[in-house]
TrEMBL record:
Species whose genome carries this gene: Pseudaminobacter soli
Pfam families reported in the protein's UniProt record: GST_C, GST_N_2
InterPro entries, per database record: Glutathione-S-Trfase_C-like, Glutathione-S-Trfase_C_sf, Glutathione_S-Trfase_N, GST_C, Thioredoxin-like_sf
Protein's recorded name: Glutathione S-transferase family protein
Domain GST C-terminal: 88-214
GST N-terminal domain ranges (all copies): 1-82
Superkingdom of origin organism: Bacteria
Length: 234
């Protein structure tokens, strides 16, 4: 079967994985999840007990969660090396090092800000503390990231890789939460523009926005979430 990537909106990290599938240019399907309304329930837990996106339904019908595991799966499929490197190369090591930094400390730093965002009628003092703490650790992780970034090209060399696609979904979160000034991180701002200019990323952003962009032909359409849960949920 064709793999199905379950991606979340709004502003999901999984937007980058949509770009990765598009760049890999092998047949794939997508399943769209409204993270604010369709994910925090027992039914979705049948697909991912942690009630998160992304989730991949692999070509043999198994569910695979966790971005790092999904990018490892993509690396194995990407025999033409359109989005990855030879797994034995030093570039592959650097790609994983970068993706792991982004997927752990950088992503986790936003947790207080997402919690504050999702609180509907909470204690204003608590929400304010969450935002204050969140802004502080987001700034610290941005400084670390800024120090790692190249002045030109993409994350690892000149072509789009899983390092870029892991970054691009979460690099916009500071903006979403109004938590950092783009001018304070000039290398990150410039890199984001270069990554977002890539056709596969343009495609993924349009998909996330609910449009029907022309892609490379590998995308075979959306599968409704209910159908994915009925067929593949535990
Ligand atoms: N460790 C997971 C984290 C994924 C993650 O943070 N997903 C977010 C969306 S980008 C999510 O589903 N958040 C919902 C929530 O936890 O409330 C991974 O790397 O795949």
């Amino acid at each position: 079967m064709d793999p199905i990537l379950i991606y979340g909106f709004p502003a999901g990290s999984s937007m980058g994985l949509v770009a990765a599938f598009e760049q890999m240019a092998l047949p794939y399907r997508l399943c769209r999840v409204d993270m604010l309304h369709d994910m925090k329930n027992n039914r979705y837990s049948r697909i991912n007990g942690r009630q998160e996106t992304p989730v991949l339904i692999t070509d043999d019908g198994h569910t695979l969660t966790e971005t790092m595991a999904i990018i490892r799966w993509i690396e194995r499929q990407d025999v033409h090396r359109r989005i990855t490197f030879d797994p034995k190369s030093s570039e592959a090591d650097r790609m994983y090092q970068f993706a792991a930094f982004v997927n752990t400390g950088f992503t986790a730093a936003f947790s207080p800000l997402w919690t504050a965002y999702e609180i509907q009628d909470g204690d204003p003092a608590y929400v304010s503390s969450l935002r204050k703490y969140g802004r502080r650790i987001v700034a610290e992780r941005h400084q670390r990231l800024e120090a790692m970034l190249p002045e030109s090209g993409l994350c690892i060399g000149d072509r789009l890789t899983l390092a870029d696609t892991t970054l691009i979904g979460v690099a916009r979160w500071a903006e979403f939460h109004d938590a950092a000034e783009a001018g304070d991180y000039p290398k990150l701002s410039a890199l984001r523009r270069r990554i977002e200019a890539q056709p596969a990323v343009q495609f993924a952003m349009a998909i996330e926005a609910g449009k029907s962009p022309d892609g490379c032909g590998a995308f075979l359409g959306h599968v409704p979430l209910d159908e994915v849960i009925d067929r593949f949920g535990s």
